[in-house]
Amino acid sequence: MPEQTHPHDPFFPFWEDPSSFLAVWLTTADQTALFQRQPNELCFADNANDFPVITVDAKQKYQVIEGFGFSLTGGSAMLIGRLSAADRKALLRELFLPDEDGIGVSFLRLSIGASDLSERCFSYDDRPAGQSDFELAHFDIEAGDREVIPLLREILSINPEIKIMATTWSAPTWMKTNQSFVGGKLRSDCYAVYAAYLVKYLQTMRNRGITVHAITPQNEPLNEKNEPSMVMEAGEQAEFIKNHLGPALSTAGLADVELFCWDHNCDVPEYPLEVFADAKARRYLSGSAWHLYGGDISALSEVHRAYPDMKLYFTEQWVGIDGQFGGDSMWHMKNVLIGSLRNWSRVVLEWNLASDPFCRPHTPGGEARCVGALTIGEEVARNVAYYVIAHAAKFVRPGSVKIYSDEHEFLPNVAFLTPEGYIVLIALNDEAEARFFTIRFQGKSAVATLPANAVATYVWRAV
């Protein structure tokens, strides 16, 4: 029978019955394969063997997936924005389209004002020492990181369905107890004006054609050392949300902007639990956001058990310059990607989208060792975080649902059913020897091999 094409089926262009076959994309720690489609597809058949089995069951459904991506820091936008128009367009299409050559990033995180990966500290309403601006008359969205909005517009022209989340690293210094961008707390008499400041940011972005879908009021609220940073205890965050930010969003007609608490590590699940325990604060909240610089990813499930109606987003994890591709990629695949998804996360974001070869830019006291998903110098290099996100984002499109797959200590994995009717299985072998295993679905079996220290994404039709 002659080969037939399926023009609306980008993963299976030559098969009459794609439900019998599994396409495979592979990344290995030794970089011999980097998100590379394998030439020999697998086939479901009636066979028996003694290999470990990963059973996938699309009837057992869990959380809906909302997206995968990175933080578009001010530094990232600056570096990408300075590429030639042709190179920039090609790179953005690669990043944000899930076509044959793209990886399909579907979610971005922004900083409200500066992050530590901006060139300098700033807010959108900085005033000279001793002055304040309770009317926000001096609010200026162009105060810094000026490349972000133009680049976002370009991204949205390529993929208008991108979802955007934003968070602050610090309030304007005149609102803070120590009048500094580093540490300090929000002054009690500035709760209302800080809420108005966040509302004004959201409104101004919408006026520029950019809808921010979700916010957290403070990045890493227990981190007092970063530049910029601001401390906000759990009780303070609950009070700010229930008495100021939540009502301000409603009054401004921004109730459609989802509000998340925490946005910090897995070692203090007590923080979001305390915020959620305040029923008046919880009525304004959609969920909690998480990093993994401390604690265990299972903390997400602990919070889910207590408040199953609250969403979980994994919003940040960095890759350091002193690491190695193999070790870092395997750890991130296991803990950040597979780990957070098996613990109810709906979103998975790696940290910085782009840096230069010297991990710049960053603020003077910001993190100076952070490798971007891309390194932009004379050429564009793709790094650990790029491949971590690619293995999910290209295939697990927004609206996909996590489904059941057997849990294995030596074969960490996670599976999904997509809106288009695909099954996607991501499986990891972080051991020193190759592993044979069986994928079982609807009574059929396919034998797979994962090389040592490798991750693979398997894609097939559900019906």
TrEMBL record:
One of its GO terms (molecular function) is glucosylceramidase activity. InterPro entries: GH, GH30_C, Glyco_hydro_30, Glyco_hydro_30_TIM-barrel, Glyco_hydro_b. One of its GO terms (biological process) is glucosylceramide catabolic process. GO terms for cellular component: membrane. Keywords: Glycosidase, Hydrolase, Signal. Residues 399-458 form the Glycosyl hydrolase family 30 beta sandwich domain. Residues 65-396 form the Glycosyl hydrolase family 30 TIM-barrel domain. The keyword Zinc does not apply. PANTHER family: GLUCOSYLCERAMIDASE, LYSOSOMAL ACID GLUCOSYLCERAMIDASE. Belongs to the glycosyl hydrolase 30 family. This is Glucosylceramidase.
